[in-house]
Amino acid sequence: MNVYDSERMAEILAPLGYRTALKPDEADLIILNTCHIREKATEKVYSDLGRIKEIKDARIAAGHPLLIAVAGCTAQAEGEEIMKRAKYVDMVFGPQTYHHLPEMLAQAERRRSMGGGPGRGVLNIDFPEEVKFDYFPEISNPQGAAAFLSIQEGCDKFCHFCVVPYTRGAEYSRPAASVLKDARLLVSKGVREITLLGQNVNAYHGEAPQGKVVWGLGRLIRALAEIEGLERIRYTTSHPKDVDQELIEAHRDVKKLMPYLHLPVQSGSDKILKAMNRKHTIAEYLAILHQFREVCPDLVFSSDFIVGYPGESEEDFQATLNLVKAVHYAQAYSFKYSPRPGTPAALMDNHISEEVKTERLERLQSLLREQQTAFNKLMIGRILPVLWEKPGRHREQLIGRSPYLQSVHAELDSSFIGSISSVKIAGATLNSLTGEQLTV
Ligand code: SAH
Ligand code: SF4
């Protein structure tokens, strides 16, 4: 979502004469778009800011001013703190305010021309009533054949470990007509694959194009599939609790919907799921996977896992390993629990030691790597359609994505970029597949 947000910010700034600089030391404005989900992401903000300050000092010494902005969820959560800790930052603004970027920029420039200095930065961490999507300029320049499209934002679930409901705010779904308009525009500019984005994308409940009804994600996907020229649809991230029959049936009927589903479960233990406030059990999660597999036997799953949540016993962790063994994931992300300020889990008194978290994460990741490699190796000998996205590291090599979101490399000339064509899979590793051009 931050990639999508950064693209929108670039588009908002384009009419003011800004374009993307190739190197930070050539920039007049540096926006650090930040993440707050785990402590590591937040620490990185301050170390990156230290480096950016050196660039600012060097530019000022050479007679060129440079503005520094911090955007995104760390800006939202730590606004004042950033201003205090890094006084050279000119602007701090949250994810719901960046449609105001031109005004904020003008204000920052005015303050700088008046001498700038500590305490003069522009801070905006409001949750405005107006909807930022209504203020974005038309999508002008998609980055390639595969694009992101935000349809939902924020979250009302309040899992006990998570900062999203506080940093991104309450759940909001864009009206279907405006999503469809953006999708048609992307396709007219050469996009072949759209990934629908939302912190809780399948909680989507957008106003229907006609009348007062509301569309769920399944209905929206059916409408998007009618767009000629759009060949692949994906969506991320979904919550098990929000899976409904309509979404399951979309996987049965809509051929453009790719057979890969990221459906995070976080833990294999019902006790931990309850403590996390995830609002479903393992039996319910497995029943959902079963329903998906019944209608779409080709569908593969990916998940997020948190290890070392407060109170997680060795037995709870074993339950996570057992779940992984039962499901066979094609891919997964796993993290050590990271206490986040202001969340209920951070206040619990049964935290797990760092050593135990590290050791459990290693065990889980080793199993997940094994499953991912095994899944990739299953592809050897198969013919897979690939959307070719960009040149690879070697000459005449392209990189693209399979329907299962695997990265595929093949020797092909660059005229294939932006199109889908099939290759025969000849090799597979943990992270990628090698394809060979079909001989006719
Ligand atoms: N809405 C999605 C996830 C959004 S956050 C869902 O409910 O599944 C992305 C992932 O970051 C989460 O799935 C979780 O695995 C991880 N995460 C969130 N907060 C975390 C924390 N405090 N510590 C470690 N991982 C966390
Ligand atoms: Fe965070 Fe996802 Fe839970 Fe919402 S549903 S609180 S985004 S983990």
The H-level CATH homologous superfamily of the largest domain, spelled out, is tm_1862 like domain
CATH C-level class of the largest domain is Alpha Beta
Q: Using the 3D structure, state the CATH architecture of the largest domain.
A: Alpha-Beta Horseshoe
The largest sheet has its strands arranged as 15-16-17-19-18
Mean pLDDT comes to: 94
Count of the separate structural domains: 3
Q: Number of DSSP helices?
A: 12
**Strand residue content:** 15-25%
The CATH topology name of the largest domain reads pyruvate-formate lyase- activating enzyme
Level of helix content? 25-40%
Bound molecules: S-adenosyl-L-homocysteine, iron/sulfur cluster
**Which term fits the overall shape?**
globular
- Cα radius of gyration in angstroms: 23 Å
EC number: 2.8.4.3
Organism: Caedimonas varicaedens
Family: Belongs to the methylthiotransferase family. MiaB subfamily.
Subcellular location: Cytoplasm
